[in-house]
Amino acid sequence: MASRKIITIVEEAPSASIFQFLSGFTHIKVKELTPPPPSKDVLGFPIFMHGPPRVILRQRKLPARLLEVVTNLVLTPDQRAQKDAHVLIATLLACIWPETTKELKEKGWITTFSQVTRERFRVKHPFNLDFALAALLAMPKHLQSERRALEVIIAMVLTEYKKRISTDHEKDFSFEAHARRHALLGYRIERLLRHVTARAEQEHVIQQLYNSYLYAARYYEYSLISRESLINDGVLFKMYCRASLFNAHIESNGRVLDRVSRTQMPQRESVMFFVLRDSALRKRYNEDPEYAEVVKSLVRVFPTQARS
Fold first, then answer.
1. What residues make up the domain containing 141?
2. Phi, psi of 129 (to 5 degrees)
3. Most exposed residue of 79, 266, 277, 308, measured as fewest CB within 10 angstroms of its CB?
4. Residue 174 has pLDDT above 90, yes or no
């Protein structure tokens, strides 16, 4: 039933101008820009695993580490990006696979590892991995091995999360199904919002809409990173773009804009990252020229990364 209902959503193709009605809501602010995940999707205990992925991090001997400290301010952007990637990978390994802590300390990638660090990186919901996903999307393309390692780590944690939440709910959990559910709810709220006049109610409905579209976009991303097999109806990517475009009307201070803020939009390179991992989309793209043109037009809506 949900699949049939959601098909009607894409009759209005997402574009940068579909939210013109927001010009009547610029007096509203979204109060919670980083809402917590749905409470029923949060695990009771953080994820710890055995059997870490094979990630090769070079030995950092003491002289080299001291030299890095001395020359840290003169590292090239590429060197700094690689070092930051290695530190992030090592920290995630130590937090999710505690058995790796000793080896990583010996190699010099983690020096102190307090309970505070573990608390910061504990994963009870995929939202706790968003910082790692953001780092993956921002990582320079020349760091291919680091990108692969980080993506593998995130995918393994997402897969483990699905197993545990499925056990808790006593039914199979699907990121795709949740993305569709939140997208459909967001679309319904969007239609309702146009008819809300009381300011207090407008603030409440705008927050609900922002949350629903944020959840839809995130769960779609998780479904692709964890390599779920998606339904080949071409809907989810359009809804992902719609959700991203709506939330790009919310400024970093929460103020609702009557136009898209390019700084709040995902980069085109990030959108393509997910397009390339959506096997259902790519299959239909290759089989349906009309759909291929729709995908191209949607991708072009997003800004390209500024080149230095």
1. 62-169
2. -100, 0
3. 308
4. yes
Q: What's the token pair of residue 234?
A: 């071409």
- List CB contacts of 276: < 8 A, sequence separation 6 or more: 282
Residues 16 and 102 reside in one and the same domain: no
pTM for the model stands at 0.87
Closest CA to 20 of 245, 298, 266: 245
> Is the CB of residue 301 less than 8 Å from the CB of residue 245?
yes
Amino acid at 84: D
Number of domains in the chain: 2
Q: Pick the last residue of a domain from 135, 169, 203.
A: 169
Same domain, 165 and 176: no
Distance CA 149, CA 170 (A): 31
Give residue-wise pLDDT tens across range 222-254.
Answer: 999 999 988 878 789 999 999 999 999 999 999
Measured distance CA(3)–CA(10) in Å, rounded:
12
Encoded tokens for 34: 């980083």
